[in-house]
Amino acid sequence: MLYSKIEGEGKPFVIMHGFLGMSDNWKTLAGQYVEAGFQVHILDLRNHGRSFHSDEWSYEAMVQDVYEYCQANNLTRIDMLGHSMGGKVAMLFATTHPEIVDKLIVADIGPKFYKQHHQDILAGLNAVDFSVKPSRNDVEEIVSQYVSDFGTRQFLLKNLYWKEPGQLAFRFNLNAFNNNLDAIGKPLADGLVFNKPTLFLRGGNSGYIQDSDLEAIRQHFPNLQLETIPNAGHWLHAENPKMFFEMTTTFLKE
Question: Which intervals hold domain AB hydrolase-1 (predicted)?
Fold first, then answer.
């Protein structure tokens, strides 16, 4: 069963992180959604955070995990939010289990195919040799040789934890990612449609959702709203959390 944090009372609202992320990334916003009257479920998807590791890593497998999570927690009518990879999971879940999802929010990702672009990040993560028992500073120094952006490095290094005294490790399953790297860019299959209200949010400085993508998105999500958060990139929920919260809650309460 997936690891989750459940807070609040009200309409169940399931939130899913992006690639190499975890539920902790959404802790602050989750608290705000609780105050807005939702029962919030922030998940760690398989091979991420505190959830189980598996050699199988695909959107179909992740959707099945989320379905089993909903079944186990008696979640029969939910709202759902996914960012990046989590957004791809959310899109596939909503189109294959539309009876469960009332409203869908997809943050800075589309249903199209995305070419692999995480090579530098994965090279940096793979360069860390935990057998020599590096310190946190050692790990950051190694990763910084591959990932120059400070914010991205801090996001990645949130996954460090003490596996045992003196022994750091990553929470995510790096081997599964190395062996299934093409899985993350996979498009939503033709013919899958979710007719209920759907909000796509994109960062004004992000290139993940282009104006030219709208027609293809609408084929899958005809009841579509698209909003742009200015001065924000791919991590729009972290870069402008106030506007992200306002736009999402307005949509959910409409």
Answer: 11-109, 179-241
